[in-house]
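[Discussion] Sanity-checking designs against the backbone

I'm trying to build intuition for which residues belong where. Below is a structure token string of 131 positions. I'd appreciate it if someone posts a full sequence so I can compare it with mine line by line.
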């Protein structure tokens, strides 16, 4: 069964997700302070709008606690990267990930640990679950 595509995140949405990945659950005000240290109500509204869009895309969860809404990521960094790489492969033609992987390996930008991890993944049976 094919996985449901992961929605794309804009650059601004990605910054909000990065703050959530780093800090876990957070209120709008906390995210505003992390992303825009100078603060201000206009920045509060900006973060609020970004969180609304992320929630609509199914990338963050929100829950009410007292008078505040708290937000947490519903997607991990690796999953979002994987979705972006699949979109990139599709836009470059053929949907093949091989050219992307080949480029990473050939440029020498992977660490020994990353190469070893890729080898293990490639040697696994298709559909096998890793640790």
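Best answer:
Here's mine. Compare freely.
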């Amino acid at each position: 069964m094919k996985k449901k595509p992961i929605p794309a995140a804009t650059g601004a949405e990605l910054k909000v997700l990065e703050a959530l990945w780093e800090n876990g659950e957070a209120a709008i005000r906390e995210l505003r302070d992390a992303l825009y240290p100078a603060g201000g109500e206009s920045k509060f509204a900006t973060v609020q709008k970004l969180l609304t869009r992320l929630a609509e895309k199914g990338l963050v969860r929100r829950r009410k606690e007292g008078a505040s809404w708290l937000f947490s990521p519903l997607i991990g960094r690796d999953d979002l990267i994987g979705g972006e790489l699949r979109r990139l492969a599709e836009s470059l033609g053929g949907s093949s990930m091989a050219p992307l992987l080949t480029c990473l390996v050939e440029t020498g930008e992977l660490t020994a640990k990353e190469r070893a991890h890729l080898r293990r993944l490639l040697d696994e049976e298709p559909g096998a679950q890793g640790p």
